[in-house]
C-alpha cells in the first residue's frame, strides 16, 4: 500500500530518478561527471552530476566568477559558502565541497531526488497530518540554524526540497545572514526575501530579528501547505504589502481550531509577541506525534573520506589539485573572509611518506592526552582523551620528490592542539624552496 506521503505527492522521487539521463562525457576536475541542467539563476546554473569514485548523484551549482564580481555579489557568495560549511543537519541540503577553475566556482551539494515541495503543493493542499509532519522537519532545521547564528531570510516552498525518502531538505542559503551582521541595535537591516513570505517588520524598514522573520516565513509555508494558496496575495504588490503589514488573512473552512490558533501565533504581526522556535516545540498542535529529530553532528570537514583515502601518497596530484593549492585558486580565503576560521593547512615535504607519519606519531606520543591511530594508507587520526578527532593528517604525492602534507581539524580545541603543541615540533619536515631534494644532483 502506498504511504500517505506517496498518495499526496505521488511518485516524485522515482520519477526524478527515471529522468536521470545517461551522462555525457563532461568531466569536472576528474571527480564528477556532469549531466543535465536542473535549473538556473541570475549568475549560476545547477546541474545533476555523478561522483566518479563513488557513483553518488550530486547537484553542482556552477557560479560565474565574472558575473559575481561585476554584479557585486562576491560577499554574497562567500557568505553562502561559509554558512553551508557550518550546517550539518538531516533536514538541510548538505554542501560536500567547493571547487574552482579560472572562470567558475562549483558548489557540490546533496542531490534531492524528490524535487521542490512547491511543485507538490501546487497540485493540491496537504492533509493536516502531512502539513504537521513537514512543518516539524522545517522547524527542526530552522531551529538548528538559529542555534548556530544563521538566519535563512528566504524560506518558501521553492527552497524546500524532498529526498528519495520524502524527507524535507532546506536549501538556498544565498540570502542568509549570520549573527556577525547584526548591528549595534541587535537587529538586521538588509531588505531581502520573497514578497509573499516577507515579515511585516521588514516592510517597516526599522530593523528586524532574523529568527523572528524566519518564524513568520514558516507560518506562511504552513498556511500554504494546509490551504493550497497564499495567506497574503494580490496582483498589486503594495496592496499585498498592506495585507501583510495588517496581518489580514483568513483560514480555509477545513482548518482545525487548533491549527487556526497556531497559525495566528506564527503570523502575529508584532515580532515581540510572535511565537518563538522554543515555544513552537512546546505547542500542542506541533507536538502531536512529534518525534524529536536526533542526529550526530559531523565535523565541518568530511573526515571519513579524508581518512579513508587509502593510497593517497602514491597518487600524483593532478593539475587541478595543484592549481587549487596556489594562492590564486585556494578557496580557504573565500570561506574565511566571512568570519569562518581556517580549519586546515598544507605544507610541502621532501621526506618519505613513512618518515612524515612516524614523526607525527613521535611528536604526538610526547603530548599528554593525545594519541594517534593509523588510517588506511598514508593517513593518521590524531585523537584526544575520549577518542574525539583532534586532527586528520594525510600525505599526498606532489612530484617524484615532493609530498604535500594536509592537516584538517574540526574545532577550536583541535586547532589549538595542532597549531600550538604538535606543529611547532615538525619544522624539520617542511620543505623550503631552494633546498635540495632526493634525486637532485
TrEMBL record:
Domain NAF, first and last residues per copy: 312-336
Co-factor requirement: Mn(2+)
Residue ranges that the Swiss-Prot or TrEMBL entry lists as coiled coil: none
List of residues binding ATP: 61
Pfam families: NAF, Pkinase
Catalytic activity, EC: 2.7.11.1
Catalysed reaction equations from the record: L-seryl-[protein] + ATP = O-phospho-L-seryl-[protein] + ADP + H(+); L-threonyl-[protein] + ATP = O-phospho-L-threonyl-[protein] + ADP + H(+)
Spans through the membrane: none
InterPro entries in alphabetical order: Kinase-like_dom_sf, NAF/FISL_domain, NAF_dom, Prot_kinase_dom, Protein_kinase_ATP_BS, Ser/Thr_kinase_AS
Keywords: ATP-binding, Kinase, Nucleotide-binding, Serine/threonine-protein kinase, Transferase
Protein kinase domain sequence ranges: 32-286
Family listed: Belongs to the protein kinase superfamily. CAMK Ser/Thr protein kinase family. SNF1 subfamily.
Protein name: non-specific serine/threonine protein kinase
Organism of this sequence: Rhodamnia argentea
